[in-house]
């Protein structure tokens, strides 16, 4: 049994050594680097060159804010309903295809939301298969002969985003349902609660903290989205950043809108944590009996299968089928100039950013743990702000300072050597990699911190007593035991980098394309045949990562 006293001595001893101070200094430097873009946004917002805030308030800000709030609420509610319902079915019941659907429900994680938006519009538009079939079946000649809902609306955007993001709720809710004690359900059934009442009275209250956490992530992603809302012409705070910065040439106004988004996201995080703190459920010291799934029969079994298959079809099947159809109609698009270069840019930047992110997270978490409850440990929550900040916000906070630094470096090099080196940071993919690192640092930090916590303190103590340094202990003890978690963190960060669009659009150098930006540019011109190869490659890369994650989760 590990006691509190057995955990603290190695940290205090390490902190007194020179090696411990070096690791702590590295942790502080990494925390400062991750927090710098958010600090830059705040500084630019309060020191704009031209204050257009009154103009925004009088004109577009109410529309931006209203659409962002409505989109977040509708997307969160729909994703919570779909994710929680699917998690309840696969965790509590057995029905045809349950084992396969349990993992198929994760597939929408591999599909960027903007690809789902293109597929839905193409499927339901006037020339799409649905309306074409209706006209053929009922003899209608033109659109005046019948009514069909407009897809490009705020509701349509919410449906698309929820179809792509519900797995965040599903994953957390499924784990929560499975970890609940089976005795609670047995008592509830003995008291006459079964079916829907069992869900509302027992399952949902116990899983509510996990569902709230997943819903908060979905709402944050909905607020940060750019690809779907721009394609559906829904004006949100994120589209307002692009308009204010790129069209109005006002970085200060863009930073002010970015601060508003950041405030909304932090409010969502605060509400989610408050809701979790108010709900505390404890298990007995004994190992609780697991929940035994019930077997459904008859129409109920097939209804459960259909209910779980619909989200998979909407979030994965439809986008893949539509994009594959366009790709088959124009196979030459797979050998179009620039596609392989975009694939290389995507893989290289995502792989480099994933490796750098996980490495920095390992160093920071290790340094913070060596200092115990010192300053590095206290700054760890600050570094999670990057994930709360949308890509457009980080682009605002990175581009202006990096551009100023680039010009200073170029001027200094020109004065020393007489040659102009060009833009070393903003003129290359370095700015994109930095944005990815800041944006997804919280994923790697959370995974590595949890992995460090699972290593028994006696193991590093034994290594240090045998003469190992702090770095040697990390390499010889921690990393071998954390290999699975580090690999999962690498995959998660990698697939998120592949799908990231707003930061890439704003920070990429001239004539620099990734698969996401290439697909978005072609789709914005209504050229889905040319956009489909890049979109399918993005999905394929994400699908490999999701499959590896599902396999790792199954082993645990």
Give the proportion of residues in helices. over 70%
Which descriptor suits the 3D outline?
A: globular
Largest sheet: 2 strands, parallel
Query: Could you spell the SSE succession in H and E letters?
Result: HHHHEHHHHHHHHHEHHHHHHHHHHHH
Number of helices: 25
Rg, Å, rounded:
25 Å
* Proportion of residues in extended strands: under 5%
User: How far apart lie the N and C ends?
Assistant: 23 Å
Q: Give start-end ranges of low-pLDDT stretches.
A: 1-16, 280-287
Task: Return the structural class.
Answer: mainly alpha
Total beta strand runs = 2
**Strands side by side in the biggest sheet:** 1-2
Averaging pLDDT over every residue, what do you get? 80
């Amino acid at each position: 049994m590990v006691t509190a006293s057995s955990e603290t001595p190695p940290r205090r001893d390490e902190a007194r050594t020179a090696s411990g101070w070096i690791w702590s200094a590295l942790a502080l430097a990494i925390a400062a680097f991750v927090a710098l873009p958010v600090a830059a946004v705040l500084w630019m917002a309060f020191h704009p060159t031209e204050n257009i805030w009154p103009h925004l308030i009088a004109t577009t800000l109410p529309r931006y804010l209203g659409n962002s709030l409505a989109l977040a609420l509708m997307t969160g509610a729909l994703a919570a309903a779909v994710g929680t319902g699917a998690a309840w079915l696969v965790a509590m019941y057995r029905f045809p295809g349950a084992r396969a659907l349990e993992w198929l429900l994760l597939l929408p994680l591999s599909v960027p939301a903007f690809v789902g938006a293109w597929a839905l519009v193409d499927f339901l538009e006037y020339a799409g298969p649905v309306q074409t079939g209706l006209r053929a079946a009922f003899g209608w000649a033109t659109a005046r002969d019948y009514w069909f809902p407009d897809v490009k609306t705020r509701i349509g955007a919410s449906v698309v985003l929820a179809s792509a993001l519900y797995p965040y709720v599903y994953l957390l809710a499924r784990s929560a349902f499975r970890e609940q004690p089976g005795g609670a359900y047995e008592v509830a059934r003995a008291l006459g609660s079964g079916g829907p009442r069992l869900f509302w009275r027992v399952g949902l209250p116990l899983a509510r903290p996990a569902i709230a956490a997943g819903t908060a992530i979905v709402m944050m992603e909905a607020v940060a989205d750019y690809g779907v809302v721009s394609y559906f012409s829904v004006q949100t705070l994120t589209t307002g950043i692009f308009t204010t910065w790129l069209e109005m040439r006002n970085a200060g106004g863009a930073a002010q809108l970015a601060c508003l988004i950041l405030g909304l996201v932090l409010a969502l995080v605060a509400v989610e944590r408050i809701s979790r703190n108010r709900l505390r459920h404890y298990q007995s010291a004994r190992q609780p009996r697991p929940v035994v799934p019930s077997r459904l029969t008859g129409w109920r079994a097939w209804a459960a299968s259909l209910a779980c298959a619909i989200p998979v079809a909407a979030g994965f099947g439809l986008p893949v089928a539509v994009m594959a159809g366009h790709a088959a109609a124009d196979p030459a698009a797979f050998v179009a100039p620039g596609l392989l270069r975009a694939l290389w840019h995507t893989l290289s930047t995502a792989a480099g950013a994933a490796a750098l992110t996980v490495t920095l997270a390992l160093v920071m978490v290790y340094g913070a743990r060596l200092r115990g409850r010192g300053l590095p440990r206290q700054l760890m929550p600050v570094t999670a702000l990057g994930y709360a900040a949308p890509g457009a916000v980080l682009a605002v906070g990175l581009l202006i300072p990096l551009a100023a630094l680039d010009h200073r470096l170029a001027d200094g090099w020109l004065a020393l050597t007489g040659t102009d080196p060009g833009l070393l940071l903003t003129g290359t993919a370095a700015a994109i990699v930095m944005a990815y690192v800041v944006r997804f640092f919280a994923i790697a930090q959370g995974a590595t911190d949890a992995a460090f916590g699972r290593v028994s303190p006696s193991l590093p103590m034994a290594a240090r007593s045998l003469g190992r340094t702090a770095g040697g202990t990390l390499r010889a003890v921690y990393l071998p035991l954390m290999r699975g978690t580090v690999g999962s963190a690498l995959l998660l960060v990698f697939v998120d980098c592949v799908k990231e669009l707003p930061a890439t659009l704003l920070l990429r150098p001239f004539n620099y394309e990734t698969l996401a930006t290439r697909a978005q540019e072609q789709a914005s011109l209504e050229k889905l045949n040319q956009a489909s190869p890049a979109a399918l490659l993005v999905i394929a890369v994400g699908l490999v990562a999701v499959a590896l994650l599902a396999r790792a989760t199954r082993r645990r």
